[in-house]
Amino acid sequence: MKMEATSRPVAIWLLTGVAMVIIQIALGGITRLTGSGLSITEWNVVTGTLPPFDAAEWAIEFSKYQQTPQYRLLNFDFTLQEFKTIFFWEWFHRFWARLIGVVFIIPFIYFLWTRRFKASMVRPLVILFLLGALQGAVGWIMVASGLTGDAIYVKPTRLALHFVLALGLLSYTFWFALQLLVPADQRVGLPSVRKRVIFILTLLVVQLAYGAFMAGHKAATAAPTWPDINGQIVPDLLRTGSGIMFWIENKIAIHFVHRGLAYLLLIAIVLLTLQLHRPHGSRWLQRAAWFPISLVLLQVLLGILSVLYSTAIIPGQWGLFEWMAQLHQLVAMLLLLSLVLLLYLTGKRG
Prior knowledge:
Helices cover 68% and strands 0% of the residues. The protein has helices at residues 8-33, 55-65, 69-73, 80-113, 119-144, 156-181, 191-216, 244-249, 251-276, 283-288, 291-309, 320-345.
């Protein structure tokens, strides 16, 4: 079964969106790792599209940044050139978000006008647009949390929400594309496998949120050892902590949960791969079955290296830790999409 001619441009458009969202999330990671997220203190949807062009405009933007807690408490010795570096990454992150909006809305109007959409497509696409708008709003709420009081970084809980919503947008777009790309005869009904995939996806979402907590609290350096956590498998500190805030704010507790979930995911995906090893009559599923195990093994390795290389962090410089952390985030996105693919392929109704 081939894709209908009218569906092909829509599928290409959706996959372009998937690629752009992956890049956007990666840019968010770079923005975080370079400490750039609070360099732009306003959210001007239209006028903020272009960066400063002359010395006077740069002086105005730098003056605004100098009023922030991050500058006063952390980056008080920043030169204008250093400010320009962090400004660029935050500006480019926002610019790419605007570009995603343009790439979505213009083809959407064109496809709607030329009747490329089936009636069943319009509502999900409107939801997709609203999810993108929500993501932009949450992004600004996140940035605003680091511009008041004595905050020198954004709140980790809001960073986690921003990250998880971005992954939700990514998965939703990818799922929509799969509906146009996957031939109907390549989907098979495997309820037991599907339940296992849903369980793994649930674990992974929690794990990704804890990855954001790790990043938001800059927790890597709190326990730069493996397989132990500063010499202990189960840190003594965990016996004295209580309450939900302890488990999302204490750096050692976050390490413990993040690592524990990684091991659980590894075991669950190994079992899933063994379950999918039997032939099911689908070439797509046969190939897709190997994606999660390959990616989770790479993900665990990158996580370990990120922790171990955290001792080499030099403020203001991009080094081994930053590379490992960025790749760790990228592989996490691919792992998520590989599981979404399995969920779709095993969901055929009888």
